[in-house]
Design brief:
Elements (H helix, E strand, L loop, with lengths): L2 E7 L3 E8 L4 E8 L11 E2 L1 H19 L6 E8 L5 E3 L9 E2 L7 H11 L1 H8 L8 H11 L1 H4 L4 E3 L1 H10 L3 E3 H4 L5 E2 L4 E2 L1 H6 L9 E3 L4 E4 L2 H7 L6 E3 L2 E2 H8 L6 E7 L3 E7 L11 E4 L6 E7 L3 H11 L1 H10 L3 H10 L9 E3 L17 E3 L7 H25 L4 E7 L6 H11 L3 E4 L5 H12 L6 H8 L2 E5 L3 H31 L1
Helix pairs in contact: 1-6, 2-3, 2-4, 10-16, 11-12, 11-14, 12-13, 13-14, 14-15, 15-18
Length: 508
């Protein structure tokens, strides 16, 4: 039996999973780490935390499983997208990584748009300049920390820094690199025009691969650390959303995923390049060679619930600890006791600004309609509903672009919540399915590793062999009609508040 390892370098932690070639989970391990927020709207992490979490969890799953290193045929890497890891000539990290949800680079987005040209930028990179993307983060360092920028020799994404530590190779792949805004998306290659016009060097970027291609092998020193065999192949892998999509079987038209992790994403496969002229959703290269994907993103999905849990749910945390369960289970139970619409309380999940559909780094979280009658349970349910409304925004735009939606598959941590899945079914007016594995990105990159190692013929063939639908939750038409009224108000609220968001940002 052949085995594969998938490593998912996320925002809250790194999860490593060992699978057999049929996609069954053999062992898993998770190690968490902090996110630093020096100022409102800023977000940074230490790349050394990612590396330490990666090698220790690989070691843990191998030790737990008892599987021989000889039988582990490949490693795939998934990672949080867009983060900027800056290395000097000695491969030392120059500063903490500015990560995906950081919003400090609005001025740099304007600068990039002016330098490249708004239409030309979308023509090449398939997206407008966004604070979430890597390019604006690098330009922020160039403008605000010139003493650091002048030392930069390599710009890597989070998972690609981990790859460098595993293999010694500077490499990336098309799905994750698509979110840097340095790529020519239709041609699946780096854009020399964009890179040079922004005052950067092409040599700063890693070699670009398709996602299932082998990018390097495990070094001797890493083998000693992790227990892997020297020479074990490490494939390109994928950005977390493309990886999760492969792990969810979103590798053909008609099947769409709705993922609730720290952020929330609606993801659709496309056989051709399709670009929203308004720039509300992202078009990136898919981890399936020769394919692309369309992605709508809400910045503060699971992040909203985690923020509320950490600040207002001490009782649930302590009770859950005594019961040996997850606090979110108790929070779900509280939300389930509240009727649709949270007794007139509507939540905007813009804790870290917003991408789809507003592209506004100054947007902020809001509880609207709060009154003395509302309870903690109302607020929990309002958060769940607000996140689903935001995902509905994404889904509606994707449908607007002519993408066929036959099935929506739920995934991510939020996909484990039955009440959250049912809300999606009722708000989307579509059946929500789950599959036989909940490992998402880790499974996706393990599948890619299997393709790279020759265990599977192709990514779609591998998904057919490994992935089956497990549960189906159908929409309640009556509840959908009720939700439509609240969703209409939700959509109006941003327009009512956007000038106030700007005014607040100016005085902060």
């Amino acid at each position: 039996m052949a085995y594969l390892i998938g490593v998912d370098i996320g925002t809250s932690g790194t999860k490593t999973v060992l699978f057999d070639e049929k996609g069954n989970t053999i062992a898993s391990a998770l190690k968490e780490y902090p996110m630093y927020q020096p100022k409102v709207g800023w977000a940074e992490q230490d790349p050394e935390d990612w590396w330490n979490a990666t090698w220790t969890t690989i070691r843990e799953v191998i030790d737990k499983s008892g599987v021989s290193a000889e039988d582990i045929k490949g490693v795939g890497l998934s990672g949080q997208m867009h983060g900027a890891v800056l290395l000097d000539k000695d491969d030392k990290v120059l500063r903490r990584s500015i990560i995906w949800c950081d919003q400090r680079s609005a001025k740099e987005c304007d600068e990039i748009t002016e330098i490249i040209g708004k239409e030309r930028l979308i023509e090449i990179t398939a997206n407008p300049a966004l604070t979430g993307f890597t390019a604006s983060k690098v330009m922020w360092v160039k403008n605000n920390e010139p003493e650091i920028f002048e030392k930069v020799r390599k710009i890597l994404l989070p998972k690609d820094y981990v790859r460098f530590r595993l293999t010694g190779e500077y490499a990336t792949e098309v799905s994750d690199a698509s979110g840097m805004q340095f790529m020519d998306i239709p041609r699946r290659t780096w854009s020399e025009e964009v890179v040079t016009k922004l005052g950067l060097e092409m040599s700063m970027l890693a070699k670009l691969y398709e996602s299932p291609e082998v990018t390097g092998t495990i070094t001797e020193s890493v083998a000693q650390l992790t227990g892997l065999k020297v020479g074990t192949p490490v494939v390109g892998g994928a950005g977390d959303q493309a990886a999760g999509a492969v792990g969810n079987g979103i590798v053909k038209s008609g099947v769409v995923s709705s993922t609730i992790g720290t952020s929330g994403v609606v993801f659709a496969h496309s056989d051709t390049v399709s670009i929203d002229p308004k720039g509300r959703v992202h078009t990136f290269c898919h981890a399936v060679p020769g394919a692309w994907h369309i992605m709508g993103v809400t910045q503060g999905a699971g992040l909203s619930l985690k923020w509320f849990r950490d600040n207002f749910c001490m009782e649930e945390i302590r009770t859950a600890e005594l019961m040996g369960i997850d606090p979110y289970v108790l929070m779900d139970q509280e939300a389930d006791r509240v009727d649709v619409g949270s007794n007139g309380l509507i939540y905007l999940p813009y804790l870290m600004g917003e991408r789809t559909p507003h592209l506004d780094p100054d947007a902020r979280g809001v509880f609207f309609g709060l009154s003395a009658k509302h309870t903690k349970a109302d607020m929990i349910r309002a958060i769940l509903e607000g996140v689903v409304f935001s995902l509905r925004d994404c889904l509606d735009i994707i449908k607007e672009m002519g993408v066929e939606v036959k099935e929506v598959r739920a995934s991510g941590g939020g996909g484990k919540s039955k009440i959250w899945r049912q809300m999606q079914a009722d708000v989307f007016n579509s059946s929500i399915t789950t599959i036989n594995s909940s490992e998402g990105p880790a499974l996706g990159v393990a599948i890619l590793a299997g393709v790279g190692a020759g265990i599977y013929e192709s990514v779609p063939q591998a998904c057919e062999a490994v992935i089956q639908v497990k549960t189906v939750q159908k929409a309640n038409c009556e509840l959908n009609k009720r939700y439509e009224k609240f969703y209409a108000i939700y959509r109006q609220l941003y327009n009512s508040l956007k000038n106030d968001f700007k005014a607040l940002a100016k005085i902060m």
